[in-house]
UniProtKB/TrEMBL annotation:
InterPro entries per UniProt: Ketohexokinase-related, PfkB_dom, Ribokinase-like
Protein name as annotated: Sulfofructose kinase
Native source species: Kistimonas scapharcae
Protein's gene: yihV
Protein's UniProt keywords contain Kinase: yes
Highest rank taxon of the organism: Bacteria
């Protein structure tokens, strides 16, 4: 894929990139277990990084901003960004151990996830040296997020927050952004309950455009005075890893292509469903022809006003 010039970027995604190692084996683990790996996949990962790749595969000129090391694992991630047409000129590379995400898939269908995330250091690029039409943040680098939001305000660039996991810093960002897409994990921790609608009401006191994604239950939202819910596209889920990232990247695509809100919800949800059809976070991220064919050949989920 062609990498866009920095001056041509439509979507800037800032946040976390890591190395995903996906391991599949046939044995059920016990104490002090050893086993033969059946399959292993290594690719770039991370919420923001996956969303950037998702949008680029759907035809959006995309740039990624974040922090990586100067080691081979970081270069692997840079190369994969470039293979997927993502500009990385705003990535800061320094003496830094990159984050690692390990997924173990057991024969009984259960998965275990482990990750190593280097403590935050604020030496990442906070200079908005491009003019994107939209910015997506994951809230990992709070100081940089604040700087980018301030510059975006001056330039009338809308900002979306991916509220995947709860943290005090992400909560502090919610009133400062234009749109929030929150996961059910975020809302469960935030509300200490699974009352999604109460969580939606609470979040919309701070951001009037809020979506809560609910995995195979679809999503609910409050958007410009409208509240509603939508189910999911039909899909036999192989692996749900990365589905939320696919949703975020596709939703940004729909905003940039000026889809209606309801059409964009269906579009983004279809991207998330297709991501679930393959193992690993990136293998199932669709391109536009694949996504269009899927939507045309499956019954679309119903949208209900609340």
């Amino acid at each position: 894929m062609t990498i866009p010039a920095l001056t041509d970027i439509e979507l800037l995604v800032h946040g976390h990139s890591c190395l995903d190692v996906y391991v599949k084996h046939a044995d059920t683990p016990v104490n002090d277990w050893q086993h033969r790996i059946q399959a292993m996949t290594i690719n770039g990962g991370g919420m923001a990084a996956n969303a950037a790749v998702a949008a680029s595969r759907l035809g959006v000129s995309t740039g990624f901003s974040g922090r990586l090391g100067i080691d081979p694992f970081s270069q692997f991630q840079i190369d994969e960004f470039h293979q997927n047409g993502v500009n990385t000129e705003l990535v800061v590379q320094q003496d830094y151990i990159p984050s690692l995400f390990l997924a173990l898939n057991h024969s009984d269908g259960q998965s275990e996830y482990s990750w190593y995330h280097t403590p935050h250091v604020s030496k990442v690029c906070d200079a908005l040296t491009c003019q994107p039409s939209l910015i997506l943040l994951d809230g990992e680098s709070f100081d940089v997020a604040i700087a980018l939001i301030g510059t975006a305000r001056e330039r009338n660039i809308p900002v979306i927050l991916d509220a995947c996991y709860l943290s005090d810093r992400r909560l502090a960002l919610i009133p400062k952004v234009d749109m929030v897409i929150a996961s059910h994990d975020f809302v469960r921790e935030y509300m200490q309950s699974e009352d999604w609608h109460a969580g939606l009401r609470q979040l919309t006191q701070h951001c009037a455009k809020t979506i809560i994604t609910l995995d195979n239950e679809g999503c609910i939202w409050h958007w410009q005075g409208e509240e509603g819910s939508m189910g999911c596209w039909p899909m036999d889920c192989v692996d749900g890893l990365g589905a939320g990232d696919a949703f975020h990247g596709a939703f940004c695509t729909g905003l940039l292509r000026r889809y209606t809100f309801h059409d964009n919800l269906r579009f983004a949800s279809a991207a998330g469903a297709l991501c679930c059809a393959r193992e690993g976070a990136r293998a199932g991220l669709p391109d536009m022809p694949t996504l269009t064919r899927f939507m045309a050949s499956h019954p679309e989920p119903n949208i209900t006003s609340i």
